[in-house]
Design goal:
The complex is a heterodimer of chains A (356) and B (270).
Chain A (H helix, E strand, L loop, with lengths): L4 H20 L7 H6 L11 E7 L7 H11 L4 E7 L3 H9 L5 E5 H9 L4 E6 L2 E2 L1 E6 L14 E4 L5 H12 L8 E4 L5 H6 L5 E5 L2 H8 L2 E6 H4 L6 E6 H6 L1 H20 L1 H12 L3 H9 L5 E2 L7 H14 L8 H4 L26
Parallel strand pairs in A: 1-2, 1-3, 7-8, 7-9
Antiparallel strand pairs in A: 3-11, 4-11, 5-12, 6-9, 6-10
Chain B lengths: L7 H11 L1 H24 L11 H13 L2 H33 L1 H15 L3 H12 L3 H25 L3 H9 L4 H35 L8 H10 L3 H23 L5 H7 L2
Classes of the chains: A alpha/beta (356), B mainly alpha (270).
Chain lengths: 356, 270
């Protein structure tokens, strides 16, 4: 067949049209991309309002998919769609562009955003504890001071893990430069540790459990041992949404709180529920949630001034935060329900995992 | 095509045709050898399982991704973004390059700026892509456009500016002007280089897809790799890598067909 310019143009048009049709599938009314986000279809698909909430696949944000699930399988007037992100910088950009108006985020990063004039408020917390300092299984490190001169990975300079490490180093009489901190994406931490590229890391679950299950790492400190009621992430809401639609925010905070209360007492079920959202192996999540109650907790999640002030003070002292922001500007507790009952999730509706 | 027509392209192709079986067997042999090496490395545990997934684990996750229907959706999403971004940059970039190649003042004015943008990695545009184009297909298409547009303009421009002046003098004698000049002289003279530039920049577009789909996408091959990392599933990441490589190769074969356009043969004979 002879190729001519006319045929070439016709070919390109055909390719683009076919791909466009396959991509947007106009014959389907709800669209392929959205259809994929909703893993579970419940009785309440017809909720009048809906809100997209951002999260990362870490156990600190577990209540997000649980709330998503609960809003689709139980009676609630707002339908919550959880939207997974892969890194915090993208979450920040999305929040600035108001593509998501509510998201989970590491607490110091929310403070930094507020400092830079992005009007966000902390309305609730993700979970307590849930982070560990992990070192190689056969390393000789027995305490923090043994890490002197070693390389330790943290998820972000604006992570509370970084802040707490600094506080702890001060307590042990170490100098700020004594530990060499590197920023790594959490999924790469277990493998970096196993290959010897780093000597340890401090990050949220399930990236600590992964090293333990692989037999390459062991926990040096549980977060709660070095900082009782450790906070990593919080539910951050854009002020515009708070001003424009208080009922949705109230529904959201109630949903997250109830999901937390449910996850605290239904840990194995929570792992099973979240696995398809996270696309992670249920085994790893299950290990995090059930192996040791010291690892994570989903209660007492109302942000307190004392907790956040402590974090801010360290940030200011380290020079990572520049401006002292009054806690009243940063925290909004108006939406936290007075009584938190576990979310009424029907266990039988949690889909069975595809793979064992 | 007439057989007695002298054609350098045909000459270059002919020897391959004679030993067509070798042209197939040799690369297939290399692929099999690489696969055996991979299998042996993982079978004898030269690397621990977490640093190199075994072929079996990858085959399993292939099955899993395809039966879940995710892989097909991811392939369509990525192809759509790459094709739209790439066609956009070709449609805008090639005419601009043709124009710049023929106008010295235009070249002097724009080349520094074009060069400046050429060196900006698409990764650097990510925050702006989200702020300007929000989330979904648009920021990814924007990133692919930014990665391919500038190299394409510059390559087309330099191809035009290397056309021997005598061609245009002859064209003037024939009173060729406007579209006639473009169709009979300029395009045929530059198309071989433009097609090469298209293939190279298409390669860039396909490479950029992994970075582009970090941008709050919910599907796509690049996103599949990010998600596999987050899900601590390197086996699934490898199966996405294989798909990206194979599709990239297939698309390049398609683009190579462009050199069979009638006007292009003339360009190869220079």
């Amino acid at each position: 067949m002879k190729l001519t310019i006319a045929k070439l143009i016709a070919g390109i048009v055909v390719i683009i049209t076919t791909l466009g049709l396959l991509r947007y599938q106009p014959w389907k009314t709800d669209g392929p991309a959205d259809a994929r986000d909703i893993i579970h279809e419940g009785a309440n698909k017809k909720a009048e309002r809906s809100l997209t909430v951002g999260y990362l696949p870490v156990t600190c944000h577990l209540t997000c998919p649980v709330t998503d699930f609960a809003s689709k399988t139980t009676r609630s007037s707002t339908n919550f769609n959880s939207r997974v992100f892969t890194d915090f910088p993208t979450v920040v950009s999305a929040l600035q562009a108001k593509q998501v108006q509510a998201t989970f985020m590491i607490v110091p990063l929310a403070m930094k955003l507020r400092e830079q004039g992005v009007p966000v408020k902390i309305c609730y917390l993700g979970h307590r504890d849930g982070s560990e300092i992990v070192v190689a299984k056969n390393s000789k490190v027995r305490s923090l001071t043994d890490l002197k001169g070693k390389t330790v990975a943290i998820p972000s300079p604006y992570s509370n893990q970084h802040f707490v490490m600094n506080k702890l180093m001060g307590d042990y009489g170490m100098q700020p430069g004594d530990i060499n901190f590197v920023i790594l994406p959490p999924p790469d931490m277990p493998t970096s540790l196993a290959s010897g590229a780093i000597d340890g890391y401090f990050v949220g679950e399930p990236f600590c459990a992964k090293a333990e299950l692989d037999g390459t790492g062991r926990v040096l400190y549980y977060a709660r041992d070095i900082w009782p009621n450790f906070i990593s992430c919080a539910l951050v809401v854009h002020e515009d949404l708070i001003k424009e639609n208080r009922e949705v925010v109230a529904d959201l905070v109630r949903g997250i709180a109830q999901s937390g209360a449910w996850a605290e007492t239904h840990r194995a079920e929570a792992a099973k529920l979240a696995a398809p959202y996270y696309r992670q192996d249920e085994k790893v999540l299950n290990f995090v949630l059930t192996s040791n109650p010291r690892r994570v907790s989903y209660v007492q999640l109302t942000p307190t001034d004392i907790d956040l002030q402590r974090i801010q003070d360290i940030g200011l002292q380290m020079g990572l935060l520049k401006k002292k922001i009054p806690m009243s500007e940063l925290i909004d507790r108006d939406f936290v329900p007075p009584v938190i009952t576990p979310a009424p999730i029907d266990k039988s509706k949690i889909p069975e995992p595809v793979r064992k | 095509m007439k057989e007695n027509q002298p054609n350098s392209l045909l000459k270059a192709v002919a020897p391959q045709k004679r030993n067509g079986s070798a042209a197939l067997l040799l690369p297939a042999g290399v692929v099999v050898a690489l696969f055996l090496l991979w299998w042996a490395v993982s079978y004898f545990n030269l690397f621990p399982a977490y640093s190199l997934p075994s072929p079996l684990a990858v085959a399993k996750s292939f099955k899993e991704e395809f039966t879940a229907g995710r892989m097909v959706n991811d392939i369509i999403a990525s192809l759509w973004r790459v094709v739209v971004g790439f066609v956009l940059s070709a449609v805008l970039g090639i005419p601009l390059g043709l124009w710049l190649g023929q106008h010295l003042a235009g070249r002097q004015a724009f080349v520094p700026v074009l060069n400046f943008f050429r060196f900006l990695s698409p990764l650097a545009w990510i925050p702006f892509a989200i702020l300007w184009f929000h989330i979904g297909d648009k920021p990814a298409i924007f990133l692919i456009f930014m990665a391919t547009f500038f190299p394409l303009v510059l390559a087309t421009m330099s191809a035009v500016s290397t056309i021997p002046k005598i061609y245009f003098r002859v064209a003037k004698d024939y009173h060729y002007k406007g579209s006639e000049l473009l169709n009979k002289v300029t395009l045929p003279a530059v198309l071989p280089q433009v097609i090469t530039a298209l293939r190279v920049s298409y390669g860039i577009a396909w490479v950029v897809i992994v970075a582009a789909e970090m941008v709050g996408c919910q599907d796509g091959l690049g996103y599949g790799i990010w998600e596999a990392r987050n899900g601590l599933r390197l086996d699934s990441a490898v199966c996405y890598m294989i798909i990206i490589g194979v599709l990239g190769m297939a698309m390049d074969r398609l683009l190579a067909q462009l050199s069979k356009l009638p006007n292009v043969r003339w360009g190869y004979e220079r």
